[in-house]
Amino acid sequence: MNVQSWTFLLVAASFALYIGIAVWSRASSTKEFYVAGGGVSPLANGMATAADWMSAASFISMAGLISFMGYDGSVYLMGWTGGYVLLALRLAPYLRKYGAFTVPDFVGDRYYSQVARIVAVVCAIFISFTYVAGQMRGVGIVFGRFLEVDVNTGVMIGMAIVFFYAVLGGMKGITYTQVAQYCVLMFAYLVPAIFLSILITGNPIPQFGLGGIEQSSGVALLERLDGLHRELGFAPYTGGTKSTLDVFFITAALMVGTAGLPHVIIRFYTVPRVRDARISAGWALLFISFLYTTAPAVAVFARTNLIDSVQDVPYESVPEWFTNWEATGLLSFEDANGDGRIQYVGPESSMTNELTVDPDIMVLANPEIANLPAWVIGLVAAGGLAAALSTAAGLLLVISSAVSHDLLKRGLKPDITDKQELLAARVAAGVAVLIAGYFGINPPGFVAQVVAFAFGLAASSFFPAIVLGIFSKRTTREGAILGMISGITFTAAYIVFFKFVRPELNVAEHWWFGISPEGIGTLGMMLNFAVTVVVSRFTPPPPPQVQVLIELIRVPRGAGEAHELSA
Amino acid sequence: MADPKPDGGAPERPSVTDPETVARHAEYWRRNVRYLGILISIWFVVSYGFGIILADALNAFKIPGTGYPLGFWFAQQGSIYVFVILIFVYVWLMNRLDREFQVDEGGQS
Question: b vs e for A388-412, b when ≥16 Cβ sit within 10 Å of the residue's Cβ?
């Protein structure tokens, strides 16, 4: 069988599996729809959280980005895993004990204020929409390249699948499809990585292969790559070019942002007990770490393979994958010096670079570059789709519950019945799928950038409000509201200024303290913390029932099931 | 409809007004915060310390028997392993602490 038949077969089989699970796990109450009935086992929740978390960006883009950024790519590796330590230690157990359905639920009750609730709803919806549009782009890329269907058709197929299980099954359907999607995406990521590791270093474990000896040259792989980089005028792979301060701030923004993302936080409402919330954060990070420690190895394998297979090769005799990806426009060659050969060189080289490669294609093209069997290439396509769809579904649930639960039930129409609320949740999820699909088909030029900024926004809004809400009884409504507003406004303004208003000024010398827009969420978070603490000192303390509520959150006993509290 | 409100009183919910319970919970919380302080410090040192601030200096050393420069290894491998271990250590510490202070959920079946 050829690559395309394998891809069709594997993608169709995985889709059939997801639909089967969705039919089996329909939701019949709001509690099943929002928190899967609160009875998910910690291990299953860990897997579901891992799939929820690892998006098209983790699966398709990350190794490619690291491949081109070298050491600087560490911001993603540490940033997107370290947040789980914060989540497990400072948020998950307490939020589980509190037992709400959504993040704005907690913020609204803890800060005894509808204004705080609305601010949180707006932040949650904004963060989730920017994120979901990026997932749809990932679906489009996979369909466009491997199934040779039109990108729009691809997005529509993806929408139909997500619509089916998110609208029907709610959190319950999503949880069990995510468990399946985790298995598919992890298998699809590890198989080619192991193949490549054996081919290049002779060691089947990519994490060891990365630190191993390249068999063809007998030199340590990383040393050989640093050498190639020097030769071709790139910065050394293990050294990086960003300033230490900027790396620090970007990593912190991604870490804290992870801990503040609503679609991750709500996963911890689905387990029965506080201790389950703690351990499921551990399982989640363990499952995530399989991919995140493999990614830097894939990045180095891909980088070495790419340089070896194109540098100074006559354009006439390029391999087939090169021509295939050229057709998508994501890889392009311009023969600047007219010698008919590809010069792939860095900024410090005396020659002109003639090859442009979009980092997004590296993971998908890697198996082809290394001549792996056709079924492995099909598997990677199915894995990429699993990653994109699982994250999209989790985000859509946040949007739908923000509308039906936080806006309707806890806001505008408190008297609606459970049945009506469930219907509203389904309609909201349906509408959200359509909007996400629209952005997938007509991506606004800034989607890819905005996805990265969603983290800065989450870091500068939710994280301080939730942490202080648990760890400081003195934090008041006024403090939290002003803190959230000042944090997210400052962060958004800095990003909008440098990315959209005056993009020509977006270089290190114009940045405040040399912090790039990607890392500014960390400063926004500090501002939020400072404003919240100072304002809280000068405003009346929270009412006694809120102080009792905080006491209750702090001890595990008596968590019971996810329920609604009224403070 | 919604589940019972907390004040409406699930019977097993412990009272937080009884002075003995208040003192016990306060001590439990102090211990919890101390564990957090220690674990978060380790978290900070391996990632921001070894992986970022000291990365260039540590890159002068290689992990014996491999091609990994030490700072690079911490940034792209080691810190992630430590994160996973930290969470499992925290889970173990807290489960023990919950039992010691009788606030665990296992005892109430």
Answer: bbbbbbbbbbbbbbbbbbbbbbbbe
